[in-house]
Known about the structure:
The chain is of the alpha/beta class. It has two domains: 7-76, Helicase, Ruva Protein, domain 3, CATH 1.10.8; 96-285, Vaccinia Virus protein VP39 (Rossmann fold, 3-Layer(aba) Sandwich). Helix content is 38%, strand content 19%. It has a seven-stranded mixed beta sheet with strand order 5-4-3-6-7-9-8, with helices on both faces. A two-stranded antiparallel sheet has the order 1-2. The termini are far apart.
Amino acid sequence: MKGKLTVAxxxxxxxxxxTAGPGAAxxxxxxxxxxxxxxxxxLGVPRARLRSHPEEQVxxxxxxxxxxxxxxxxxxxxxxxxxxxxxFWSLELAVTPxxxxxxxxxxxxxxxxxxxxxxxQSRVADLGTGSGAVALALAAERPRWRISATDVSAGALAxxxxxxxxxxxxxxxxxxGSWFEPLAGALFELLVSNPPYVAADDPALTSAxxxxxxxxxxxGGTAGLDCLRAIARAAPRHLxxxxxxxxxxxxxxxxxxxxxxxxAGFSYVRSQRDLGGHERTTEGQHGQI
Length: 289
């Protein structure tokens, strides 16, 4: 990366470096966006400023910082881990390698939860909260809800608690333990979860795209259904009559998850599609016919 150290020149060189690097296949079509996000981070400015001031000169030290960030991204490390933050719903969240990077698809989980319960008082649990993305998005939209967020990872809960504190959200309690273990028989009107659902032998787990993220938050057993099945079977003991369970899952798992919810006694079982047209969440109501 040589020549003029202008914003425009650095961005163009950054895109070239990313698309020519060994991890280019894992980056997909994101090289242009990644270059912008990383340069904005290196300069400490909003991304919009890069577009409005392409001719601006960049100090050599900042350009060197940018090159170091590009080198990390070229290995497949997620931009969110490099910058330490990720936008989700209406929130900016801190993220670290202790948590899964929140995906846009998971916003459908938030949408369905909001659609199923009114803005009145409700008890809600987010199982496997990770960075706290879903729980905090719900709390931001429904300040009268009381939300319990569980996770087996102490490191993930530290990130989630820090996000809640920085956002000034005090209506979420974070509890350490696997799925329902920390909830001690509590009953809820709504349960939501984005559990691990990648098959344990899926080569994607060791790919550049996912290899930097915590395997604990990704691998869901032999067929990727172990965690989904465990939650579906235990959920009726933690739902009031008429309460809802909403699960995120893989694009090809909708039929299997619907089957598990029916076996667990849920009614009105249905799947919802994400913006890509894939079945991404499945929901069911407890104790209704």
